[in-house]
Amino acid sequence: MIDAGRFHVYSATLNQRAGRWIVSLTGVAAELHHAERSRSARHPVAVGVDRGITSLAVAADANGTPFQDFEGVKTLRAAQATLKAANQALARTTPGSKGRQRARDRLANTHRKVANIRRHLVHEASKALVTRAQVLALEDLNVTGMVRNRRLAKSISDAAMGELSLQILYKAKWHGVEVRMVDRFFPSSKTCSGCGEIKRELNLSQRTYFCVVCGLVIDRDLNAAINLARWQPDESPSGTAPNTPRALLLSTV
Fold this sequence. Notes:
Layout lengths: L6 E11 L2 E10 L4 H4 L9 E4 L4 E7 L4 E6 L3 H4 L1 H13 L5 H35 L2 E5 L3 H5 L5 H7 L1 H15 L2 E5 L25 E3 L6 E3 H11 L16 H6 L1
Parallel strand pairs: 3-6, 6-7
Antiparallel strand pairs: 1-2, 3-4, 4-5, 8-9
Helix pairs in contact: 3-4, 4-7
């Protein structure tokens, strides 16, 4: 884009991360080609995106049809053993020695690899969503507050919930996608996507949603994604979800 004159650089910032130098460019970029911003060939029905812990994101449209399932980011948990060994090796070294510097570099490189893999997966998911859908519905999660839960902190960090939302928001502007931010108090997980019944309690360990009213059995995250896709801005957070025609029940099982 710089060679083509479509990006004008205003400033450059150079910094070092985990032994590598990185330059960040700040400037103004031209809009994407009109074909890239056209929504005519994209999924015509609103798509809800449920960010979770077991999966990076589960997407489904308002008709109850699964859109795409993005596998969970497990890189941090998978690297825990390597990180633990690197930390122990660093603790055994002598302060100020060359061995300590090498151990510190190995630890930094491990963290860098984990971060790069996570960032790559989030970029892939966000690009797939903004290039295939016309309308996306995201829940306005309080990620900062969720990370304070010691039991879920690692899983939430691995899932990169906040980063996925940020990437979708800025890429949606490039591609002309409408993004609806769903009220965080909207009971997307507790609401049955078949009949609209709302459960009073739903533990996080329950990964399958079962409705005692209509008998719907569906994956918890898929059920939430469908409800997010059907959400409308004028709905009250505590209000009952709109009733769903019985015909839609068949497509969600």
